[in-house]
Amino acid sequence: MKKAIYLLLLPFIGLLALIVIGAVSLRYLDWNGARPWLNAHISETMERPFAINGDFAINWATEATEADWRHWVPWPHVIAHDVTIGNPKASNQTFQGRNFATAKEIQFSVDPLALIPKKVIIPGLVLASPHLSLQRDADGKDNWSFNHHVSSWNLDLGRLVVTNGTVELHDAIRKLELRGNLDTVDAGGSGDRALKWNITGSLNGATVSGHGMGASLLSLQYESVPYPLSADLQVGKTKISIKGGITKPNKLAALNLYLDLAGDSLADLYALTGIVMPKTPPYMTQGRLIGKIEAGISNWNYENFKGKIGDSDFSGSVEYASAHPPSRLRPMLTGKVLSNKLVFKDLAPVIGAGSNERDFAAEPTIEKTATNIAYPKIPTRPLAQL
After folding, report:
1. Are 43 and 28 in contact (CB under 8 A)?
2. Which residues contact 338 (CB under 8 A, 6 or more apart)?
3. Beta-carbon neighbour count of residue 188 at 10 Å?
4. pLDDT per residue over 232-242, tens digit each?
5. Which residues pair with 366 in a beta bridge?
6. What DSSP designation does 376 have?
7. Average of per-residue pLDDT values in the chain
8. CB under 8 A, 24+ apart: contacts of 64-71
9. How far is residue 259 from each of residues 243, 269, 271, measured CA to CA in Å?
10. What is the SS3 assignment for 303?
């Protein structure tokens, strides 16, 4: 009887021994030997150079968050050091000499049971000292566009943690040069993760600096959900404060945010918008900006704003619509603006009047509550010259 039981259990004992030996072997296996194959395979898939230049290891451990029998299934925990992703192989000279991305260390775990139905579940991805170099040349060629391959595998990434991250952006079309730092931080102690950043650089020749906070980078994968963002920026002499959401930030498809602007002159907005505006006294404005960009056609609404130009105040709502041939051959700006106090000297550059002080030396200020209003004579010569 004992012999029969022994013969019956022998296959199971052998299988268990193989599992134990396999687990021990996997635990202490030197995975660096797999780097050449892994580098070549990923490079071919991504169609750009990929390399793990440092140590590569896979540790096995059970996942504490798993219940019932799944708690006993070990998960592979991947650790890769000195990882680089190059620029596209077919790129021109513009991108050579710089990697698209590097990281001092990458760590993540994979649910092994989810691989059976072709699903890659990664609860968390940790990037230590990553660096991202985004580039676009004058011909519109960029290094951040990847070729999309049809695959039956699905990726589910839970959270992304970035420590001591840096990013640089070189955009020849927008004449934009930026350098920034990124770090993942706790959002108000609620357990949620947020991305904290600061930047310096230039835009159209004007100095750029600022800082802000947004949701986790993983929020960018949900294209239909606005990405929450708050920031304080300075472009040249223009100060900008924003708080709201942006849909598809990589394409700037839509935005809905509160926008505060302040500066020495509206003319300074050229560096930011590319639109030539008149030189004015110092100004400030606060309002809600709603924008939508689709197929090269943009519509912008600045709603319920209020502000000042010099000593004059103003409030209202305006709408800007870009040209849309053949129905609209030119951009159109419409709106309703109210002023409770209007000093014509502040408005002179906008309507084309001169800025000579003697033209307005004796001009009165128009108050909404005034009963007897003396309207000043507005110089018309500059208007005729427009």
Report:
1. no
2. 314, 315, 316
3. 8
4. 999 999 999 99
5. 342
6. P
7. 78
8. 65/123, 70/113
9. 7, 14, 17
10. strand
Look at strands 193-203 and 206-215 and give their pairing: antiparallel
The rounded distance, in Å, linking the Cα atoms of 244 and 224 is: 15
Region label for 339, one of left (φ > 0), alpha (ψ between -120 and 50) or beta (otherwise): beta
Cα–Cα distance measured from residue 243 to residue 159, given in angstroms and rounded to the nearest whole number: 23
Cβ neighbours, 10 Å, residue 109: 20
Alpha-carbon span 240 to 128, nearest angstrom: 31
Averaged pLDDT, 168-194: 84
- The tokens describing 368, both together, are 């909404």
Residue that has been written with the tokens 């100060």 in this structure? 239
Angstrom CA distances, 31 to 111, 121, 127, stand at: 19, 22, 20
Residue linked to tokens 């955009």: 171
Residue pair 99/135 in contact (Cβ under 8 Å)? The answer is no
Identify residue 45 by its one-letter amino acid code: T
Q: Before 226, cis peptide (omega within 30)?
A: no
**Contact at 8 Å (CB) between 318 and 334?**
yes
211 by DSSP, 3-state: which? strand
Q: How far apart are CA 81 and CA 86, in angstroms?
A: 16
**Rounded Cα–Cα distance for residues 114 and 122 (Å):** 10
* Residue appearing with tokens 């930026």: 178
Tell me the Cα Rg of the chain: 30
Phi and psi at residue 206, to the nearest 5°: -95, 145
Percent of the chain with pLDDT over 90: 27
Residue 302: phi, psi to the nearest 5? Answer: -110, 105
Query: Around 86, how many Cα atoms within 13 Å sit in the side-chain half-sphere?
Result: 21
* 120-160 per-position pLDDT tens digit: 888 888 999 999 999 988 888 888 887 776 667 787 777 88
Amino acid at 374: A
- Residue 345 — φ and ψ, nearest 5°? -65, -35
**Residue 35 corresponds to which tokens in the numbers above?**
């780097």
Model's pTM, two decimal places? 0.73
